[in-house]
Amino acid sequence: MLYVVLFFLIFSLYLYVVLGGADYGAGIVEMFSSEENQKITKKTIYRVMGPVWEANHIWIIILIVILWIAFPAYYNILVVNLHIPLTIVLLGVTLRGVAFVFRHYDAVIDNSQKLYDAMFKISSLITPIFLGMVFGGLISGQIILTEDVENLSFYDVFIKPWFNVFSILVGLFFAALCAFLSSVLLIGESVRGKENIYIRKAGIATIVVFITGLITFIYGYISEYSFVTVFVTDPYAIVAMFISGLLLIPLWITIKKGRRVLSRFFAGLQVFLILLAAFVAHFPNIIITKTNEVSLLDNIAPDSVINVLGISLIIGGAVILPGLFHLLKSFKMIKILERHNNPSQ
Amino acid sequence: MENLDAARLQMAFTLIFHIVFACIGMVMPFFMVVSHYKWLKTKDQLYLTLTKAWQKGVAIFFVTGAVSGTALSFELGLLWPEFMKHAGPIIGMPFSLEGAAFFVEAIALGFYLYGWNKLPEKFHWFTGVIIGLSGVASGILVVAANGWMNSPSGFDYVDGQFLNIDPVKAMLNPAWFTQALHMTLAAFTATGFAVAGIHAYQIFKGRRVALHTKAFKIAITFGAIAAILQPISGDISAKDIADRQPVKLAAMEAHYNTEKGAPLYIGGIVDAETQEVKYKLAIPGMLSFLAFGDFDAEVKGLNDFPEDERPNVPMVHYAFQVMVGIGGILMLAGLLYFVSLKKKKWLTNKKYWLLFIALAPLGFLALEAGWIVTEVGRQPWIIHKIMRTKDAVTPMPGIVVSFYTYIVVYTTLSIAVTWLMIRQIKVLNAQNN
Predict the structure, then answer these.
(1) Is the CB of residue B95 less than 8 Å away from at least one CB of chain A?
(2) Cα–Cα distance between B91 and B218 in angstroms, integer?
């Protein structure tokens, strides 16, 4: 059953990165668009994300619930040492969700739209950066595990683990990845004739992802962060990263040919390979502290808990996944019907 | 401010908001599908207008409930890491099922909101029913987890270790049913009266009376039925607490000394120093009867418990009085509504509508008071008799900063949501059809 639980943990993480990431990315793409294109993007985002964005964000709840049930010791490190960035992520999630609904459900369209738009765009950028900083914080080797908080400086224990160059670089990389995923998604969803907006955005995002990723690695390597040094010596991780890079070729061919489903598949596969590379290099030691590496599998919950959780996840998955699939399929149908109508009707 | 106090206040504050958002998000779908059903049956355009107006409310409250709930799922660990480290695996089951129910709700909402004129009529309506049912299921599951904090079960506690964990038994702890029943009815009562009150105000002002009367009737029917049933559930809860958490019952009643034939205090001002309740109305033997079904039964007083195991007595007592008092008023108002169905003349009387306007906020007031009773009444324990709240709090200093941040964000959010609702109603009233 432990494998079932691990599968759902990684599965939810992956889906959150891809679906939630594309969702955040939509706001980032909107932010970096010209005023005219912002309007087009706003409508497109509503049409594409409207029916599914809430579902996209539930993956993080599933993820966190699995963590605290099955891997309580690991979860404990996360919530104690990375309290501050997680709180900022939460505020970002709150403001973003609220802004999204406000701007599409406010009965009166007036100047307050500008406020909602600004809130939506800013929180769409800040949230994934801090989420990335949390990921970065877990692997940056700065976490100090201690019972003796009072005799250590607040900065060292609660700020430095996430507020350091490496973690910030991971944060930027993650935000860029979100923008990349979103642009690829939006290409196939845009109003006819406007695809070029998103093709250009996807191009820029690809370059930013590549550059931030490269800088993160170079910085981590020079500074001898064990996450990077282990990563670059693991042949499987290297191969996975290499294939992920190579996939850019079929990705861009499919984008140019307008094969939107296939291009999304390639983009999703790239993210999968990046996560896979990190996992094969490090699993199960996913938290790297100043002194040691903490295995996900240390201090796991008792078998009785894991078994019940595994069964719950299988049942829950059997109920949810078909429904979700149907929803994702249906909104395509809805999209075609609404293409030339005002989406708020 | 002490870290512990800041953490408790932040938790209380975020829960107070989440409860309102979540209850409305959980109950309003039912109003919406009833109106939708009437539209499908009668093809009366007003029902369609009403359904679509309520649907916007559902969408807004679902999101505010969802994001504040997401925040809470993290806050449990961020504020109480020691609690979650031990309790997480034990009470994980209701939370994982809640996650599933919540997911189903989000999927159903996606279908419902975007399914007009696209999905088959009956299926579309049915997705609305799913929203309501999965919302209620979520609420019950979360309350079951809270029930476990009041009546921890499904493990053996040996030398500070939680052994032989049985998550199913933990979920079906002795408190889950009474608490879930009481909470669900409270949600329907509070939302029913609040929504009915808003529409009563529109009728009072003479705006689109036909439309708002339909809305009022649907909302108040749910609210009234729940309010009339609530005292039964309250009685079950009281007997349950008398059995499981006698100290909480004693605090609710500010009952200091153990006695047989204990009187029921109504109102009164608690003096914790002298252990007296002044200006109260005492009904002899009634507390014994309500707690144990016997006028002569012995009810344990607060003095039977060590001082460091008692909650804040005045706060619990006042909150309890507020809850029961309002509960009584709303029950009578519920009965009054059903009488008014026979007395059509009342509906043209402005005082009738004024009454329901005045009652609008009371349900939520009682609901929050009830939460104060159960949560403050559980103190000083985070897990009853197992772990103290002060031992569960995060080691990170400076929680006061996040507390104030949450105050600012949630207060702004509430003002914004209220403002948005007012705009919805204005636009609704301005429509002609």
Answers:
(1) yes
(2) 36
Would you tell me which residues 302-361 of chain B have a C-beta closer than 8 angstroms to some C-beta of chain A?
none
- Amino acid present at B364: F
Q: Which of A55, A72, A98 lies closest to B84 in CB terms?
A: A72
Q: Is B92 on the interface with A (CB under 8 A)?
A: yes
Burial class (CB in 10 A: 0-12, 13-18, 19+), B174: middle
* Prior bond of B380 cis (ω within 30°): yes
Q: What tokens does A235 get?
A: 């042949």
- Angle formed by the axes of helices A165-187 and A260-282, nearest 10°: 160
Query: How far is residue B243's CA from residue B237's CA, in Å, rounded to a whole number?
Result: 10
Residues 6+ apart with CB under 8 A from A248: A206, A270
Q: Which residues contact B368 (CB under 8 A, 6 or more apart)?
A: B16, B19, B20
Q: How many CA atoms lie within 13 A of B15 on its CB side?
A: 20
CA-to-CA distance for A261 and A184, rounded, in angstroms?
10
- B192–chain A nearest CA distance, Å: 23
Sequence-ordered alpha helix ranges (H) in chain A? 2-15, 21-31, 35-49, 53-70, 72-81, 83-105, 112-139, 154, 165-187, 195-222, 226-233, 235-246, 248-257, 260-282, 303-338
Query: Which range among A44-58, A217-231, B218-232 shows the weakest confidence by mean pLDDT?
Result: A44-58
Cα–Cα nearest to B149, from B307, B385, B316, B319: B385
Amino acid identity of B175? Answer: A
E runs forming strands in B138-268: 156-158, 161-163, 259-260, 264-266
Helix (H) or strand (E) holding B226: helix B209-244
Tokens 């609305």, residue?
Answer: B128
Q: Report whether B261 contacts B288 (CB < 8 A).
A: yes
**A159 Cβ contact list (under 8 Å, min separation 6):** A84
Average pLDDT of chain B, as a whole number: 88
Q: Considering only alpha carbons, which residue of chain A is nearest residue B72? A: A90
More confident site: B56 or A51: B56
Least confident residue range of B38-42, B170-174, B385-389, B426-430: B426-430
DSSP secondary structure, A240-255, as one string? HHHHHHHTHHHHHHHH
- Smallest CA-to-CA distance from B316 within B392, B365, B375 is with B375
Residue A56 contacts by C-beta under 8 Å, 6 or more apart in sequence?
A: A16, A19, A20, A22, A23, A49
Mean pLDDT of B27-46: 92
Q: Tell me B303's DSSP state.
A: G
Average pLDDT over residues A195-213: 85
Q: Which residue of B has its CA nearest to A314?
A: B100
Which residue, chain included where needed, has tokens 């250590």? A152
Q: Are B86 and B392 in contact (CB under 8 A)?
A: no
B103 and A316 in contact by Cβ < 8 A? yes
Quote the longest CA-to-CA distance of chain A: 64
